[in-house]
Amino acid sequence: MAGTRRTVGLIAGLAVVVLAVAAFGGWWFLIRDDAPKKASIDAAGKTLADASSGSTTTAAGNAAAAGGVNGTWQVDKSVGDFSDFSGTWAGYRVEEQLSGLGSNTAVGRTPDVTGSMTIEGNKVTGVEVNADLTSLQSNSGSRDAALHSRGLQTDQFPKATFKLTDPIEVPTGVTDGKKVTATAQGELTVHGVTKPVTVQISTTLKGGKAAVVGNAPIKLTDFNIEPPTGFRVLSIKNDGTFEFQIFFAKQ
Asked: Residue 18 belongs to what domain range?
């Protein structure tokens, strides 16, 4: 009998271990929030520094850096790589409730960003950036597919646009590698609706190129967006974030 009790106890102990491992595995693969980190000017600055110190640094880039910040700057997608989000991208960040899993951060990003920035008299006088929302990518193929016809309805409203409405002072003494923060007032057009937004931005310069990261809080209902829900997605918060990381090169 003693041997039988020991055997039963051993089996029970192994069962507990197996259940614990299974529970951890379920959390790791299904429940843990593995959303990409928010854009960081430190990380973007390192990417820019690496690009500027490598073979991509040209005489034209050095001349542009020496000529100061005034001029036209174009989105430069040659810096970094979208596969690890070190390159140029724009996208969204929202909180959702998943059936049986709880809270989750949904993040979708597109590398298809174009546009320009104009600096005159040490003021940023114009910014217009366009993002192709049909190429938004997240960690869920079903979420990405749903957005084509629901929510953002990207098949019907494929573009998002940001336009600067008020000039931004370029801080005195900006030099290569210095990090600068600012607040930008502009208009964001999403889902066919244009609304004023306040964008918090950070930037750094290196070798005639600039890294700009930023974010702005938005309410989905302000843009007539009905959050798509379904069997797996129970709800999506109305408060979301428009976020971006963009590299510019001086022309």
From this structure: 1-32
